[in-house]
Amino acid sequence: MFFLVTGVAGFIGSRVAASLLKAGHQVLGIDNLNDYYSPALKDARLAQLQGNAAFTFRRMDLADHDALLQLPERDDIDRVIHLAAQAGVRYSIENPFAYASSNLTGHLSVLEFCRHAARQPLLAYASSSSVYGDNTQAPFREDAAVDSPVSLYAATKRADELMSQTYAKLYGLQQIGMRFFTVYGPWGRPDMAYWSFTEKILKGETIRVFNGGQMKRDFTYIDDAVSGVMAIATETPHFESGRRPHHIYNIGHNEPIALLDFIATIERATGRTAHKQMEPMQPGDVTETCADITRMQTDYGYAPKVALSDGISRFVSWFREEMLVE
Question: Which of 17, 40, 227, 286 is most buried, taking the most CB atoms under 10 A from its CB?
Answer without folding.
Answer: 17
